[in-house]
Write a structure and sequence with these properties.
With about 190 residues, the chain is mainly alpha-helical. Helices cover about 65% and strands about 0% of the residues. Helix 1 packs parallel to helix 3 and helix 2 packs across helix 3.
């Protein structure tokens, strides 16, 4: 194998239960295995960690399982192409995650740059107010993680300071921001 090439993804297996304890039906698990490699590769092209992508696929699979179950009870039309339906649900989750990452990066950039170098001071001020409002509603660990990210710490370094993995630190941070966003009415509950 040459120096820069990645090893090919092996067969993809999901747990029959997502991280929230929601069951994934066997037919959806089969569909997830079919689209898993392609889904992870897509997420990696969007600069999303493969472990986060796998979690997103699990969550999408659990949501699709619930949707299929609800359709069965309401005698609605069945899904014709389950792998495509699941992949679309996954893509929506990837897009939301990517949007959240971009907002965080913008907030970090504004917070660390101060008020200079701005082309729109009003927009920058509004963003600073939003970031400050979010931070006041976060728990101390989330605030600490945020400030460490501003200072240039990687998720791996932040995770080490809390004796968890970098992925777990990033996931914990994103979950905390999501909860605050729900409380502020910026996003809906899943």
């Amino acid at each position: 194998m040459d120096g820069g090439a990645r090893p090919p993804h092996r067969s993809f297996r999901l747990s029959p239960v997502d991280r929230l304890g929601r069951r994934i039906s066997p037919s959806v698990l089969d569909a997830a295995e079919e689209v898993g490699r392609r889904a992870i590769e897509h997420a990696e092209r969007e600069h999303i960690d493969p472990a986060v992508a796998a979690t997103l696929l699990e969550e999408a699979a659990a949501t699709v399982s619930r949707a299929l179950d609800a359709k069965r009870h309401r005698t609605q039309n069945a899904v014709r192409d389950l792998p495509s339906y699941l992949f679309l649900a996954f893509i929506r989750r990837v897009n939301r995650t990517k949007k959240r990452q971009l907002l965080l990066e913008d907030a970090v950039r504004v917070r660390s740059a101060g008020s200079h170098n701005s082309t729109d001071p009003e927009a920058e001020l509004e963003l600073k107010i939003l970031v400050d409002e979010l931070l006041t509603r976060c728990d101390p660990v989330t605030r600490d993680m945020f400030y460490r990210r501003i200072q240039g710490f990687s998720w791996k370094e932040i995770g080490l300071s809390y004796s968890i993995s970098g992925h777990a630190a990033e996931s914990r941070f994103n979950q905390a921001l999501h909860k605050v966003g729900v409380r502020l009415g910026l996003r809906s509950k899943l």
